[in-house]
Amino acid sequence: MTRLRAKRHIPERMERCSGLWFGSPAENKGRWRQICGFKEDCKLFLEIGCGKGKFCTETAAANPDVLYIAIERAPSVILAAIEKTRELGLTNLFFMNVDAKDLLDYFDGGEVDRIYLNFCDPWTRKKKPKRRLTYRDFLKAYEKIMVPGGQIRFKTDNTLLFEFSLSEFKECGFTLSEVTRDLHNSEYDKDNVRTEFEQKFAEQGIAIKRCVATSGKQKGSDDRIIAL
Known about the structure:
This protein is of the alpha/beta class. It has a single domain (about 40-215), classed as Rossmann fold, CATH 3.40.50. Helix content is about 30%, strand content about 20%. The protein has helices at about 10-15, 30-35, 55-60, 75-90, 135-145, 160-170, 195-205, and strands at about 45-50, 65-70, 95, 110-120, 145-155, 175-180, 210-215. A seven-stranded mixed beta sheet has the order 3-2-1-4-5-7-6, sandwiched between helices. Strand 1, helix 3 and strand 2 (about 65-70) form a beta-alpha-beta unit. The longest helix has 14 residues, at about 75-90. It starts with 9 loop residues before the first helix and ends in a 14-residue tail after the last strand.
């Protein structure tokens, strides 16, 4: 098995890109648009597990009026995404080197308009379903930080994870749409941006599964309300 080469001088390289990531993101809770220099009525899209940044950079470049926040746990991986963003000169994409389980510490209720979950770990070993990012505890947290009617756009190559996720979405009151078990041969591939993993799987002939899950949370309370 080929061992991945560790990136060198990570702290120094992160410092050179300091304007694109937040070391203390909890301080931005409820103020992301203000902190990032965007209008209060702009949309905020969140990618959980951005990898090396192919998806978030291409999506942000195509939608300059949308504020994008991308998170990734691995410092060496998120560094590649941050440096790519810097090279492209994007001003609407920012990063957090954090764990998804702590999202409620970083985002206020109704602060996020859309969440992208692309090719997250399927955790196929026994007794590990609670680690899946589509497990109901995670879904309940996502719903708290999203606007009423907010969307989760989910893609995976793993059939077991996909079927599990569809069940969890339904159990948590999300409405499913655009469900396909072969994205690249479906009508939904027209505006699809492929991730690094997705391109690799496609070249291997593995069908990509995708769905859109819309929150059933009702308008009311103190959450921000923005039409998607």
